[in-house]
Amino acid sequence: MRRKQHGKLFAPECLTEDYEHGFRLHSAGYRQIFVPIHFGAMGPVATREYFSRRWRAAIRQRSRWVAGIALQGWQHHGWGRSFVQAYWFWRDRKGLVGNLISPFTNFLSLYWIASVITGAGLWYPEGHAPWWLPDLCSISICISAMQAAIRSHLSARIYGWRFAVAAPLRIFFGNLINCAATAQAIHQFVTARIQGRRLKWRKTEHVYDGSVVRVPNRPRIGEVLVRLRYISTTDLEDALRNKPHGQRIGEYLVQNKKIKEVDLVKALASQSTFRVDVRAIDLNEPYVPPAEIRSAESPLPEPAPHPNAQV
């Protein structure tokens, strides 16, 4: 595969490299299968990352997926070499239309349900509706209810019923995000094609569950940042008090320009080598970073005096 790609493992212009790799593996003749992984009593392995909770961030994430899978995939691979490939490509790309009309269809579904509950002919005057319309609406509602039930059941297996109960309600909100993201992706793709440039990678934020099991004697990232003199204890306390629930402290500090991304990377590398109690460290003692993050290409700056150090 790498020989065919001239030694490149990833296509620089690709927005969804996992999708691209899947297609390449299939084209090379490899078989693929989804395998649920279980670790004994620990249960199944699942993604614990939260999807972006802010409207703009969620649309930004979704628009990259739509542009990479539906539009770039169409541009690079066409419709395949067989009917089976064309079918699966169609499944990936039908959202270009389906996502745009899904909020309207949600409204129609609620409208029809209200008509049935109230017994009023809200859509057509009584006796004037097409004979096939009530049956078609009933079938559509049954399919939607079955999909919502399956989604709730699968969510409950991993995240519990408290999370799963709200799954049907999140469908409506998710369809609004998909609609806006698809419109944005189409606009970005068409604009890039007209201007003759590549699609830009749109960085998205990641939020993880805060209930992470701590390694014994391993300092938190905030303590490491203070130890490295990247922030003061006051900055750390303010960040812990003001950051949104569920957002990691490092991401919050970078987002608010308290530290640089390279500083966070160095702190994370340093954290992985720490096995000491930070509370017992003398803040007046100059800090020597671990060898893993010392290099001639990116030397660390001379450490500044700690704000709490005694002169």
Q: Can you describe this structure in just a few lines?
A:
Helices cover 53% and strands 1% of the residues.
Q: How are the SSEs ordered, and which strands pair?
A:
Blueprint: H1 17-27, E1 49-50, H2 55-77, H3 83-93, H4 95-118, H5 133-159, H6 161-164, H7 167-195, E2 207-208, H8 221-227, H9 233-242, H10 249-255, H11 261-271
Antiparallel strand pairs: 1-2
Notes on the protein architecture:
This protein has 311 residues and is an all-alpha fold. The chain has two domains: 17-195, no CATH class; 210-293, no CATH class. Helices cover 53% and strands 1% of the residues. The chain is built from eleven helices and two strands, in the order H-E-H-H-H-H-H-H-E-H-H-H-H. The protein has helices at residues 17-27, 55-77, 83-93, 95-118, 133-159, 161-164, 167-195, 221-227, 233-242, 249-255, 261-271; strands at 49-50, 207-208. Helix 2 packs across helix 7.
Keyphrases for this structure?
mainly alpha, 2 domains, disordered C terminus
Which structural class do the helices and strands define?
mainly alpha
Overall radius of gyration: 26 Å
Total count of helical runs of at least 4 residues: 11
Distance between the termini: 60 Å
Sheet with most strands: strand arrangement? 1-2
- Major sheet attributes: 2 strands, antiparallel
% residues in beta strands: under 5%
Low-confidence stretches: 210-216, 274-311
Beta strand count:
2
Average pLDDT level: 77
Q: How many independent structural domains?
A: 2
Q: Which bin fits the share of residues in helices?
A: 40-55%
Order of helices and strands: HEHHHHHHEHHHH
Give the CA-based shape: globular
